[in-house]
Amino acid sequence: MTGGWAVVMPVKRLLGAKTRLADTTGEELRPALALAFAEDTLTAVLACAAVSSVTVVTDDDEARVTLARLGAAVVPDSPRGGLNPAVEHGVAAARTARPGVAVAALNADLPALRAAELERVLDAASQAPRSFLADAAGTGTTLLAVLPGVDPAPGFGTASRMRHRASGAVELMPGDVESVRQDVDTGEDLLAAIALGVGPRTARSTHRLGDGFRTSAASRS
Q1: Residue 219: per-residue pLDDT
Q2: Which positions ≥6 away from 109 have C-beta within 8 Å?
Q3: Cα separation of 126 and 80, whole Å?
Q4: Whole-structure pTM over 0.85, yes or no?
């Protein structure tokens, strides 16, 4: 893709993020782990040769400062209407900064993300006006991509895979891109991500979960 992709990453307020992880991580660690996911995701995205910019959409002060320091452009979540309005807002901001750019909305909870795998997904996405990648569970979506001038019409949320397919988006099927599919909502998801190999910030945070948790993760490798 000439000029590279602009990636949009919505990030929730940390205190309300990843609530389904609380049973695994405890309430104290959960917000820090959500931020670690976003940091490791962003670092991998910025290392991807197919990506030219990243726009983070968030109203969380800590996330704003931390992710801007890593290299993202950060815009406030002014719609405050949930994930899909945040995606639309981020796409508009990315296109204002770079008219005519292709844009991919990406989950911020991909702590095992590999830049080379993301590049393969984006290369596949360049062949369709609007496309998406299903998550590891097969029901959700981790990435929604649109070529210049195409309305993203995001349908993230429960059963988003079927919603995106029904809306006419092309489902991407590249091989060996597990790290782009493995989002983290539950303890089981976190174990799967650790087995793939998470980034350094997530690794440091999960170290606090204890030997039993790390042993369970190692047994999956």
Answers
A1: 64
A2: 18, 34, 37, 38, 41, 183, 184, 185
A3: 30
A4: yes
